[in-house]
Amino acid sequence: MDIFASLQTKLAGDVLALAKSGALPAAVTEKTDTLIVEPPRDPSHGDAATPAALMLAKLAKSKPRDIADIIAEKMAAWPEVASVDIAGPGFINLRLEADYVVQLIPSVLAQGLRYGQAAEPGDSSPINVEYVSANPTGPLHMGHCRGAVFGDALASLLEFAGHQVTREYYINDAGSQIATLARS
Predict the structure, then answer these.
(1) What whole-number percentage of the chain has pLDDT above 70?
(2) CA–CA separation, 144 vs 129, rounded Å?
(3) % of residues, the chain, pLDDT over 90
(4) In angstroms, what is the C-alpha Rg of the chain?
(5) Which residues lie closer than 8 Å to 83 by C-beta, 6 or more apart?
(6) Could you please report the per-residue DSSP string of 90-144?
(7) 90 in the Ramachandran plot: left (φ > 0), alpha (ψ -120 to 50) or beta?
(8) Helix (H) or strand (E) holding 16
(9) Is 70 strand, coil or helix?
């Protein structure tokens, strides 16, 4: 399990505990399996971030900032967290303890290229990744190559994470453009 998945599991457990204790409305338990902990868009905001308060606000019938205050207080007690900040309408940003990150290095090294791979397959429903070939009736450019490489890389990443992926690489050799080309 990677750092973010570990923190996400811990966050879900804390939200359930907060709902059970009455600090948060019981309705928020409907969303605990969809809570997200991810790298922040701006690295200066910390090591991890969650929009959990924003996701739970509607169910809690409360302001996201108020929910963020409750959740952030709980997260601040985590031993792996150095500091917690609330930004904007209720984003929660975390800075991790350096010791926590350093302790993960042996596990990362032991897993090697398997680090980050799902222990069990993800959602069993299929994922279809579609990407398009170059248009045979127009000029070629690097964007055509980029689309193929990006589509294949995305499909490989999803497979690595445990999903069942179908790749569809369309060969654009049908339709009105090709009919026009054939007539000419």
Answers:
(1) 86
(2) 16
(3) 41
(4) 22
(5) 46, 76, 94, 95
(6) TEEEEEE-HHHHHHHHHHHHHHGGGTT--SS---SS-EEEEEE---TTS---HHH
(7) left
(8) helix 3-21
(9) helix
